[in-house]
Write a sequence for this structure.
């Protein structure tokens, strides 16, 4: 649906913001974004005027059907950010520049070029043996758990949930899964995607690009059975710069969102009484928890963005050519229009957590992410069967990000395991 209500006027040229725009941010939003989504729906409908960092105007698409419409109609809402009508107001060091600054990446391509680039990624990822990936993740999990199992307590966000998908992802791409170089790369990716106060996301993104440039050079000289080598050998003949940018997209999508998926699932298993009886070795409940998290605490809660190709309407709003649309994936997943009774069915997999349409996560990336996340959660519960939360549930806090949904920490305790 492109028009679900009465139209409201768009901001006039030169106007600093849409009328009634709401700032995305603040402590209340960070901890309970679902309340903000409900308020925005009540006051603005399925498409709400919002302000990004520096009071830059954008539209937040809250409705499930509206997000589906935007992602299914690339001819109206495209990915090339050079269309943005706000560039004259964006400083070079804008914190969100790593998200929106145009790069020769698959993320910003359109039409036949996007199909070509996405096809290379798909074939490179299809070469990953899922059973082998599962075994590698079990091995990584064993190593990580062994590092803290004897102490009887751990902070799982840093010691386990972030480290495991990082090691798995870089290993898939042909890098060593541990070491100072790899850890610096992961730190820079985190800063690029989810900068904390005092971080420089633009500089961090530059360092990420330099590391992948080195990796591509190494794999051209000595290819191996990895994603990077398969991309280099693909008959589409991508340039080094194109491969570097697409590798950054692959690693970024595999690492932090999967880490948050793991940790958010562990949080659910350790705090929700519906899972309490089956935590130890409960494989079915792990699968249900993983899927429920994608509905209720999806790791990527908002995604920037799409840019209107021409003047159009969406959700009763007049969208101007060049306007930026933020895809509210978390809001769409909890849209009362699809869950009128307020109950989200964990057995249903029609969530938008991997987006939708041509620019959704390319197959088989969601399957690989599921292997990594499921293996991580099951391994932890099997190795530490009496693990419990080492804090009150209400004491857990969420990272101050409007883009990622992840905990600042997940402290646990358990009976020490002698290795």
């Amino acid at each position: 649906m492109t028009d679900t209500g009465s139209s409201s006027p768009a901001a006039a040229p030169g106007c600093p913001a849409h009328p009634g725009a709401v700032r995305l941010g603040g402590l209340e939003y960070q901890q309970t974004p679902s309340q903000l989504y409900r308020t925005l729906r009540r006051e603005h409908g399925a498409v709400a005027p919002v302000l990004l960092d520096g009071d830059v105007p954008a539209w937040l698409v809250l409705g499930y059907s509206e997000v589906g419409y935007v992602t299914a109609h690339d001819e109206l809402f495209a990915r090339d950010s050079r269309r943005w009508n706000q560039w004259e107001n964006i400083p070079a060091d804008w914190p969100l520049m790593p998200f929106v600054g145009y790069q020769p990446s698959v993320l910003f391509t359109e039409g036949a070029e996007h199909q070509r680039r996405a096809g290379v990624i798909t074939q490179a990822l299809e070469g990953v043996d899922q059973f082998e990936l599962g075994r590698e993740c079990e091995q990584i999990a064993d190593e990580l758990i062994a590092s803290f199992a004897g102490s009887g307590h751990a902070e799982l966000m840093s010691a386990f949930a972030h480290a495991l998908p990082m090691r798995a992802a870089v290993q898939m791409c042909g890098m060593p899964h541990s070491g100072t170089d790899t850890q610096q790369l992961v730190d820079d990716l985190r800063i690029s995607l989810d900068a904390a106060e005092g971080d420089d996301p633009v500089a961090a993104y530059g360092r990420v690009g330099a590391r992948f440039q080195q990796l591509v050079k190494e794999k051209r000289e000595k290819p191996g059975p990895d994603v990077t080598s398969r991309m280099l050998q693909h008959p589409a003949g991508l340039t080094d710069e194109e491969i570097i940018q697409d590798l950054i997209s692959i690693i970024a999508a595999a690492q932090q969102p999967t880490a948050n998926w793991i940790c958010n699932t562990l949080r659910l298993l350790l705090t929700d009484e519906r899972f309490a009886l089956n935590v130890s070795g409960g494989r079915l409940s792990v699968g249900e928890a993983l899927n429920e998290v994608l509905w209720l605490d999806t790791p990527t809660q908002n995604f920037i963005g799409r840019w209107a190709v021409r003047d159009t309407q969406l959700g009763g709003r007049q969208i101007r050519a060049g306007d930026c649309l933020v895809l509210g994936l978390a809001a769409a997943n909890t849209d009362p229009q699809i869950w009128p009774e307020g109950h989200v069915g964990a057995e249903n997999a029609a969530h938008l957590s991997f987006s939708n349409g041509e620019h959704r996560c390319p197959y088989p990336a969601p399957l690989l992410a599921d292997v990594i996340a499921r293996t991580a959660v099951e391994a932890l519960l099997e190795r530490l069967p009496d693990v419990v939360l080492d804090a009150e549930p209400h004491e857990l806090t969420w990272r101050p990000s409007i883009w990622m949904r992840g905990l600042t920490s997940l402290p646990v305790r358990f009976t020490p395991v002698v290795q």
User: Anything to note?
Assistant: The domain at 22-413 is CATH 1.10.630.10 (Cytochrome p450). The first helix runs from residue 27 to 31.
